[in-house]
Design goal:
The protein is an all-alpha fold. The chain folds into two domains: 163 residues, no CATH class; 148 residues, no CATH class. Helix content is 77%, strand content 2%. The protein has a two-stranded antiparallel ribbon. It is elongated, with a radius of gyration of 32 Å.
């Protein structure tokens, strides 16, 4: 092979190296975005850490108590259980809920629910179904813990009059409890009190389902329609394609190494320059998320200060803020790693040129 042929061959190889270097850089940008996104937004562990940090598990009984109170306010009591819970204060209901929740139940159910959601989002399952097991709570309501809380509540009520005792006895006998007065029976009627407690807690526990399945009814049909929609098909294609991005980057990087094996300078510069450019772009994106994202959430909170977030809404805002912060921080770390490695490779290529 003469000098012209060697020069032509070298130019031909350099052309392919430049081409693969451009493709490598273009693929590296979405890959560096995908890595932090996949390890924060699409991982249930990220949300569980945030929930634990925000003391969500301590707040959940209060949120459930608020729901019970709202439900009772819109329904006329028909049984002793419903009659009692319609007049209980939020603190009393919260105390009852805390006393009958088994140890670790909230953490287990929350982790199971979040994992089910992300199995669906990560395309590990084709259906979005969340199961919440209430059987242990139902069992505890009719056990010693539930009875003790009810007994403590009854002891704070005014003593029963003779007429009230008669109404209670008649109601228990006929199982017609909606209008039974709430009062504290005398000590001589402990059997009556025990019967009242057992009936009330049994009726309230019976009103609870053994399991709650989300979504249900119309929501389930909407989710079914969503999974067959064009938008979800596009999402599924993008998610599966993004899983291939790191491998595509490695493939083009290997091609660059293979073609430039005779010129270490070209190898290092062809890999280093795309890493530097991608690292700079992704670093800007991470900074926007870390600082601009927090300002956006704070602005949202400020605009809604007239009707402040409460309960689950406030928790959702806090979770979103924490996830955006974690995503921005992770993105900056990835960009810094890419930028540092790219600079090292580029400097080495300059040294080899000399």
């Amino acid at each position: 092979m003469n000098s012209k042929q060697r020069e032509y061959s070298a130019q031909f190889v350099k052309g392919w190296i430049v081409f693969f270097s451009i493709i490598f850089g273009l693929l590296l940008i979405p890959t560096l975005i995908f890595l932090p996104v996949n390890n924060t937004i699409f991982q249930p562990q990220s949300y569980l850490k945030v929930l634990d940090k925000d003391q969500f598990f301590d707040q959940l009984p209060r949120m459930v108590a608020e729901t019970v109170i709202k439900t009772a306010a819109n329904k006329a009591p028909q049984t002793i259980g419903e009659n009692v819970f319609s007049v209980l204060s939020q603190e009393q209901i919260e105390g009852l809920i805390v006393s009958v929740i088994p140890a670790g139940w909230i953490e287990t159910q929350t982790e199971s629910g979040i994992t089910s959601i992300f199995d669906f989002l990560n395309l590990k399952t084709t259906e979005l179904v969340v199961h919440v097991d209430l059987q242990q709570i139902k069992d505890n309501l009719t056990g010693p813990a539930g009875k003790q809380v009810f007994l403590n509540f009854v002891s704070t009520l005014p003593s029963c009059t003779f007429d009230q005792l008669a109404i209670i006895l008649a109601g228990l006998e006929n199982n017609q409890s909606g209008e039974i007065p709430l009062c504290n029976p005398p000590v001589t009627n402990l059997v009556l009190l025990d019967s009242l407690i057992s009936t009330a807690m049994s009726q309230f526990a019976a009103a609870l389902p053994s399991e709650i399945i989300f979504p249900a009814g119309e929501q389930a049909r909407q989710i079914g329609s969503l999974t067959s929609s064009t938008g979800f098909k596009i999402y599924r294609f993008i998610r599966r394609s993004m899983l291939l991005l790191p491998w595509a980057c490695l493939g083009f990087g290997f091609l660059i190494v293979l073609l430039s094996i005779r010129s270490m300078r070209w190898m290092f510069s062809s890999l280093g320059i795309p890493m530097i450019l991608a690292g700079m772009l992704i670093g800007f994106f991470g900074a926007v998320l870390l600082y601009g994202g927090n300002q956006g959430i704070n602005s949202l909170l400020f605009q809604n200060s007239q009707a402040s977030f409460q309960g689950i809404e406030q928790l959702v805002v806090g979770v979103v803020q924490e996830i955006i912060t974690s995503l921005g921080r992770f993105t900056l770390i990835v960009s810094l790693a890419s930028l540092s490695l790219g600079i090292i490779l580029f400097v080495v290529s300059r040294i080899l040129k000399k």
